[in-house]
Amino acid sequence: MNQQDQDHGVQSIDILIFIFQAMKILIWISLVMSSVLIIVTLIPNEGALKNIVPPPNFVVYFSLPEELGIVQWGDGNTTPFSIVSALGVIKTSFAPKGLVLFYSFMTILTTLLILFSIIFTIRILKSVKKKAFLLVENAVRLRWIALLGIGIYFTDRITSTVTSSQLSKYLQFPEVDFTGINFFAFLNFESIFGSMFLLVIAEVFRMGAQLKEENDLTI
């Protein structure tokens, strides 16, 4: 590899580090906002403060009957359709305090998992920049990123299910059936598969790093 290719590689890594550092700053801002929401929720008579903090984005599951929708095909035929197991996001003021607190705490937990994933990624990139990529430490970091990804999946799904179950008792909208659980939301296993695949890569990476260390010691 010539010097020009090396310089280009270093610049690419610097750009990636900058991007992840910027993401880390945004994550910290999100943590602060979630913490402020908890504080405002706990204040007995928050008054004007409640208007400053935007309401949380609650996930809701719902279904629509067939009569509300018609699909028209290219040949001119029309058939009714139904929307089942749909997912939406609502913003509403004066939600139950217990629900807001649960949502805020779970949001903080999910955000922390994302934050640690970004931190581990930055450390891996910095080691690559130093031309010391094949390390056991990096394999452990990859493993943690995979485990954190699994944790993010479950915390997000649990939060959505609990908030939807609670809100379905209060929400009213013509011809809309709000449900407490949506099994379709749990069938989205792409993130789980990606995390499991990363676990396999991390283990192979760890074995390769250990072999390299043993060879270095032998030499």
Automatic annotation (TrEMBL):
InterPro entries: DUF2975. This is DUF2975 domain-containing protein. Pfam families: DUF2975 (PF11188). Keywords: Membrane, Transmembrane, Transmembrane helix. It comes from the Bacteria. The chain crosses the membrane at residues 25-43, 100-122, 142-160, 180-202.
